[in-house]
Amino acid sequence: MSHQIDPENLPAVAPRNHGRTRAGWATNGLIVLGALFAAVGLMIPLFVLVWIGVGVFVAALVVGALLRALGHGQPRR
Question: Which residue has the higher pLDDT, 12 or 51?
């Protein structure tokens, strides 16, 4: 049982960058770095390093939002 969708009811074409933007790369890179710090801090019980990793993670979210607001991210619909 398949449904036919009329061409006028199709969604708009997605942008061609597939999320590969400066904001996306910066956010992802900083999140990975924060996770790495937190993981190393958990392996060698050094909880200061865990909290530094959490801080880098939070900073990544702020940097990503700031870059997107400056126009370096995926365009809003």
Answer: 51
